[in-house]
Write a structure and sequence with these properties.
The longest helix is centred in the last third of the chain and has 31 residues, at 114-144. The protein has 173 residues and is mainly alpha-helical. Helices cover 79% and strands 0% of the residues. The chain starts with a helix and ends with a helix. Helix 1 (4-33) packs antiparallel against helix 2 (37-63) and helix 4 (114-144) packs antiparallel against helix 5 (148-164). It contains 6 helices and no strands.
Length: 173
Amino acid sequence: MVSKKVEAALNQQIELEASSSQYYLAMASWAETQGLEGVAAFLYVHADEERMHMLKLIKYVNERGGHGTVPTLKAPPKSFKSVKQIFEQVLEHEVMVSNEINGLVETCLKEKDYTTHNFLQWYVSEQIEEESLARKILDKLKLVGNDAGGLYFFDRDMGGLAGATGGSENEKA
């Protein structure tokens, strides 16, 4: 049985994962309208992954005797200045999510909820990957600079990366 304190903290994380999904979906839509199909494809996949993270949390809370709640979300931004700005925001956002996950882990330890602590280790590892990927993408964008041809190839490569990070077939269904 999950404690009310841990349940509340998990439900806050559910809201954060749902907001992340919406945020990346807004970024994907903007990129698509700018002719950046590869960047859009990558961000659409990323939005789906964040939704899967949310669902995993909801199911966990429910399995532990709590109630995973579906949050009301505020609208994400509709437009962005540039691809570089998007990925700077992605990195900043992922660092914030990592800090929130770490706080959730700390809450579990204080509550002596070792089962949830164990469950959350997947999220801890996932955040390491998310931050690393965002940093690598920003490194590529620094190489591109303001070169339109470089942006073309970057966009093309991001489309390929979207297929490589698309999760398992079960997640795609």
